[in-house]
Specification:
single chain, mainly alpha, 62% helix, RNA polymerase sigma factor, sigma factor activity, transcription, RNA_pol_sigma_r3/r4-like
Length: 218
């Protein structure tokens, strides 16, 4: 994720003042980390791109409400997380509706093999790895919104407890509690499919769940 700096404030001041190119610079700065978070949340590339696009629309529409006393990361991820939550709620209420674009975007099940480690040499190993990744994806997707958001922001965006607290609407201690509950629930969900995991295992380190272009390593 981009590091916090005075650049955030400069970009937002430029956007508020109507400086040409200000929004484009914000998009360039935040597009990759936002897509990384939203894709992991939704597990759907088409939906992730739609939500990221809508996030930037909201940033522009609400630009004058930006509070310069808070880091920009908290604000942009709050917008994105709320959009993810709204989409998930809508999908639960309309399970019978199949969005054509989302079907085309897919959930990248068949593409996971491309990102497997080199030591997965045999078809048997590849199949086992795919099954493990699917189990991990399903376990993360089963987490409630606040737990899923906290886990993704902490493990993949490397945000502090304070920053995450501003996104999910709780205290830093509340974030710590949510992360503990999330890890406990993930270990429980994965215990049958991933017996090799120990309580200290990093069960969220399976980078193959995310395509290379979506990694937040910028």
């Amino acid at each position: 994720m981009p590091s916090e700096s005075n650049q955030d404030g400069e970009l937002m001041r430029g956007l508020i003042a109507g400086t040409p190119g200000a929004l484009e610079k914000i998009i360039e700065y935040w597009e990759r980390p936002l897509f990384s978070f939203v894709f992991r949340y939704t597990q759907n590339e088409f939906a992730a791109r739609e939500i990221v696009q809508e996030t930037f629309i909201r940033i522009y529409q609400k630009r004058e409400r930006f509070d310069f006393s808070y880091p920009m990361s908290s604000w942009v991820f709050t917008i994105a997380a709320n959009l993810c939550k709204n989409r998930a709620r809508w999908r639960r209420r309309h399970p019978e509706v199949s969005l054509e674009g989302e079907k085309r975007g897919g959930e990248n099940e068949s593409g996971l093999i491309e990102f497997l480690p080199a030591d997965a040499e045999t078809p048997h190993h590849i199949l086992e790895r795919q099954e493990d990744l699917k189990a991990l994806k399903d376990a993360v997707m089963s987490l409630p919104h606040d737990l899923r958001t906290a886990v993704l922001l902490h493990h993949y965006q490397e945000m502090s407890y304070k920053e995450i607290a501003e996104v999910v609407g709780c205290s830093p201690r509340g974030v710590e509690t949510r992360l503990y509950r999330a890890r406990k629930q993930l270990r429980k969900s994965l215990s049958k499919g991933l017996e090799a995991l120990t309580p200290d295992s990093d069960i969220l380190s399976a980078g193959a769940v995310l395509p290379d272009f979506a990694r937040a390593s910028v």
